[in-house]
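Can anyone check this?
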Amino acid sequence: MADSTYLSWPFFEDSHRALHRAVTEWRDRELRRCDESDPVDACRAYVAQIGSAGWLKYCVPRAYGGALDTLDVRSICLIRETLAYVSGLAEFSFAMQGLGSGPVSLFGSDVLKRTYLPAVAQGRAIAAFAISEAGAGSDVAAMQATARRDGGSIVIDGEKSWIYNAGIATHYVVFCRWPEGGERSFISLLVDAETPGVDVTHTIDVMAPHPIGTVMFSGCRVPADRVIGEPGKGLRVAFGTLDLFRTTVGAAAAGFARRALDDAVDYVRERRAFGQALADFQLTQAAVADMATAIDASALLVYRAAWTRDQGADRVTREAAMAKLVATESAQQVIDRAIQLLGARGVVRGATVERLYREIRALRIYEGTSEIQRIVIAGQVLHA
């Protein structure tokens, strides 16, 4: 069982501790593990399960079928961390509902919120966040997908790549730009997956199976009322959403790391070598100490950022970047150390730590690479 003493930290309220207990009990008793070799069917099944249990309600505001008046980052973090402890794909399925609907929750019109958010909260709709392109990953301002007005509609042309939930999403939040370019040329639009001109051109097979693909928009016509936020301020929508959800990536990483530590501790207590348990060797104890310390340091940064945002801060750019950077990099090191402690058992395909090793790697890249987080942090410090 993962350590939960961190819940006594002053970042949390009684409601958060109750939520953690409830999600953990549901996860251990009721979550049905899916065959994750087919990530498409598994993701659909996890969304349905998590939605029926009520946990997706934490991804949208109460007025639109959610659990709380506003998005509570600590709650989202706790759910991501708890699910990540047992399944990266279950955690992903929850997280993408939040990220994919986040622009609507934070910046959308009341009509868009009422139309789309209740189904997301119930697990009846699957959301996707379509911003990355083959030549515009970390540098989102380099995107080439365009939008143009045509009567009362907006027509989208371009290709989005590395899109999570591609092919299974019921709707996409698409970021593009007016052809004339400039800093105020970006726009965010909500596009139904069945809209003519939307086509998933191919899926991408990655080391930890997830539903990821490339989505092509060819003369895709959407009503002008599908604009999220103000036309010309699409990057504000993108960065505002990422500012909130980036912290939660660190929480998922902490969940992976806690599972790796627990599995390693169980093993070294039982495994004997040279007449004693591995846990009795000082090198093993040093490794365990480093792993536990890294996890606590990560959790402190994650829940500081989440608490700061929940206290009403408009932006937590610095705090969120620090949380994601340290938590994901530390989790990679913790999981690698766990594999070393398990020895040959750690590299067997299908072993828990082997799966975690593949799962954690992407978290150091998506929603801003570790290198980008360092640039963000330095900019916040140098220009404070």
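Reply from J.R.: I decoded it. The beta strands are 127-130, 146-150, 153-164, 171-177, 186-192, 198-203, 212-223, 272-273, 276-277.
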